[in-house]
Specification:
About 25% of the residues lie in helices and about 30% in strands. With about 140 residues, the chain is an alpha+beta fold. It has a 6-stranded mixed β-sheet with strand order 1-2-3-4-6-5, sandwiched between helices.
Length: about 140
Amino acid sequence: MEALRLEVGEGQENFIEPVSQCLSEARRNLVWKPVAICDGNRVVGFAMYGYFWWEYFPYGRLWLDRLMIDAAFQGRGYGKAALAGLLKLLTGRYPNKDIYLSVFKGNDVAAGLYKEFGFRFNGEKDIHGEDVMVRRM
């Protein structure tokens, strides 16, 4: 699988888990839906999403997770295009649901991208200690 060869840039290794670990989590927890980010037939990135209906029941939480662009393709607009496409997918499948994601402290590039798309820090930490951002619908 081409996505398994994706690697982040130098200094980004602590911001995201390897794709192999993400896919392993998705196999164990079928709520997670892995997504390859492609330019034509070439895989340039990866993400996962999942709707956790039991979180904050009865509302649930829709999580976007593990968005990454391979180091060789960073700086070319793939992150913006991928996030725009993922948001279109999620709002189509889960209308009127706020979208949550988390960011490691110091990952200012990702946080800046998410802010461009309307995400804001909400003061929460996720189970891994990452700062939570939300895009309200």
